Inverse folding.
């Protein structure tokens, strides 16, 4: 009888289901995974080391590029840590704007996750639908910051500027007739808030459409039910956060349990799974999109009736207005010092965490009183999740590894940093 | 049940006694400093004690304190800082341990207490060269295969030592000493507290 040996298979780093640059060394017994050893670091840019040589403000755009599908949530963690050390107060309107964009970001992230995950296990249509809605949300990003993805919109002490009164419109092209144009611009005649409100009105229907395609789909269930089961005890021990721990049945959400910004005033529920498999995590994320939609709606309502400042008036942290800067010597000095030397953060250390779409995104910041961080540690949720891939995929078939990578919602920008 | 930071500190002090090197609260965060020889035992205690129950190791990282500001009396160079989270009591704790030897930083591994320490410790080993005793698989994690040095140490230059390029003659990718110069556009500066106020002008 011939000797039967385990087979070692290289998965990635260039593989469409590897979600970026994951190199996975799989040890297979036939088609059953015995051991999965993820090799990461192919996207390592040493963000934390770079931040040590940049002023606090200059690192804000780096945060966008960590988890590059939930950009503003990363910025949020970073500015919260700085604000904690500085002790500055953020205007309430800025807090609402941040919460609104955090939830828009959550929908953006979950849409990409849903599309990519479904595509990985063989459903093409959801991907196209999800990207259609993502386009509208990225237009919101663009309207407010000028960039579709890497916004750099949150600043220590508030947000860069107030919400715009007009939404950019599509312009005439050879390939568009007047009727098509009118249709495309239908929701764009009012302000950004009108556009977002219109989106929240039609989005629940879109989620229904995704669910029609997947929730009761026989193939989808065959690929996800009972795959990658994590018990609540193991989920805790492995450092899971976000939808990964909620899918295992633990009701834990920083927005509710350790509320930051104005989450304490908003009304929403935490969806929790029961079996801890890929299907439950799918259901949790779908419900999170609905809850986020409702939070966005509540924020729009509040923001409509409460105008006010959106960034702190402390000019050692935030720049003065252009008019003040040009007419007032003191403000000119503030402006000059802020943009040449940067703000000084008092000596000390702080850990600030936000409930990012993927889980707990934390920033551990050590400052020695200089204009640059002494040490910045980014706690990426995906890092702990991917570390558990070995345990989650052991004993599953090769094809299930793809479903498990998909359910972990991995993005290498944040894992490799 | 939520544990306030006062009761958390009291509970730690009561049960650890003189094994606590420092315990303080700042900005609403409790920091516990322990000696390296007590580290593993205290970690197990924090995980399993009924009054504390820190089920989750949220984060673990190395810190190189070698160039930290003048105000601090120079102590050990390397520290390992971990952030714990108790879901049962809804509270957080930061645990810091300084490595005894600056030339060979050695800390016991927490992988037996919290399995999530696995990759966090591999990362700290990779970036700072801190060795975790008892870790079953202490390989480099983030840097390239065959990387030399520990890049997050303060004496490692931001530009690194080598760069990679494709060599046309050899028809392969090669490493060579870097050809770029390190430059600092905004200098690092620490100002005293009264800087920029009217009190500072006098």
């Amino acid at each position: 009888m011939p000797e039967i040996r385990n087979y070692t298979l290289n998965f990635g780093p260039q593989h469409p289901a590897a979600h970026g640059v994951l190199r996975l060394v799989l040890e297979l017994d036939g088609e059953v995974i015995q051991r999965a050893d993820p090799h990461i670091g192919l996207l390592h840019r040493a963000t934390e080391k770079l931040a040590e040589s940049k002023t606090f403000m200059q690192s804000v755009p780096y945060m966008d590029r960590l988890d590059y599908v939930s950009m503003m949530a990363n910025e949020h963690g970073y500015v919260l840590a700085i604000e904690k050390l500085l002790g500055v107060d953020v205007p309430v309107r800025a807090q609402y704007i941040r919460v609104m964009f955090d939830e828009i970001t959550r929908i953006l992230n979950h849409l990409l996750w849903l599309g990519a995950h479904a595509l990985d296990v063989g459903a093409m249509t959801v991907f196209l639908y999800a990207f259609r809605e993502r386009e509208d949300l990225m237009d919101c990003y663009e309207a407010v910051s000028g960039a579709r993805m890497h916004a750099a919109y949150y600043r220590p002490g508030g947000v860069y500027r107030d919400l715009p009164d007009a939404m950019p419109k599509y312009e005439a092209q050879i390939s568009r007739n007047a009727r098509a144009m009118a249709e495309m611009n239908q929701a764009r005649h009012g302000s950004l808030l009108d556009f977002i409100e219109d989106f929240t009105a039609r989005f629940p229907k879109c989620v229904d459409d995704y669910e029609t395609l997947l929730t009761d789909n026989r193939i989808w269930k065959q690929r996800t039910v009972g795959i990658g089961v994590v018990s609540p005890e193991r989920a805790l021990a492995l450092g899971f956060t976000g939808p990964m721990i909620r899918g295992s049945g633990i009701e834990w959400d920083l927005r509710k349990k350790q509320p930051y910004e104005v989450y304490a005033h908003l009304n929403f529920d935490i969806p929790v799974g029961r079996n801890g498999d890929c299907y439950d995590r799918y259901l949790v994320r779908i419900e999170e999109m609905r809850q986020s939609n409702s939070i966005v709606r509540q924020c729009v309502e509040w923001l409509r009736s409460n105008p006010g400042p959106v960034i702190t008036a402390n000019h050692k942290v935030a720049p003065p207005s252009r008019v003040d800067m040009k007419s007032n010597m003191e403000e000119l000095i503030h402006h000059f010092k802020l943009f040449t030397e940067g703000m000084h953060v008092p000596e000390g250390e702080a850990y600030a965490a936000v409930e990012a779409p993927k889980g707990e995104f934390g920033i551990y910041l050590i400052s020695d009183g200089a204009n640059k961080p002494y040490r910045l540690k980014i706690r990426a949720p995906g890092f702990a999740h991917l570390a558990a891939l070995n345990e989650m995929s052991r004993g599953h078939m090769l094809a299930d590894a793809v479903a498990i990578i998909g359910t972990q919602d991995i993005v290498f920008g944040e894992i490799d940093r | 049940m939520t544990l306030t930071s006062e009761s958390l500190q009291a509970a730690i002090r009561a049960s650890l006694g003189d094994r606590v090197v420092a315990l303080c609260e700042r900005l609403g965060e409790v920091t516990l400093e322990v000696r390296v020889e007590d580290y593993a035992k205290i970690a197990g205690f924090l995980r399993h004690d009924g009054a504390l129950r820190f089920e989750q190791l949220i984060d673990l990282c190395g810190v190189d304190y070698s160039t930290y500001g003048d105000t601090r009396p120079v102590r050990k160079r390397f520290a390992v800082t971990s952030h714990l989270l108790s879901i049962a009591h809804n509270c957080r704790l930061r645990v810091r341990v300084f490595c005894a030897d600056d030339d060979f930083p050695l800390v016991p591994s927490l992988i037996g207490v919290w399995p999530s320490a696995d990759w966090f410790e591999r990362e700290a080993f990779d970036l700072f060269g801190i060795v975790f005793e008892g870790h079953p698989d202490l390989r480099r994690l983030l840097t390239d295969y065959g990387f030399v040095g520990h890049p997050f140490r303060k004496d490692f230059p931001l530009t690194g030592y080598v760069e990679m390029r494709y060599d046309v003659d050899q028809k392969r990718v090669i490493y060579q000493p870097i050809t770029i110069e390190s430059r600092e556009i905004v200098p690092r500066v620490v100002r005293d507290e009264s800087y920029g106020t009217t009190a500072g002008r006098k």
Q: What stands out?
A: Chain A touches chain B through 54 residues (CB under 8 Å).
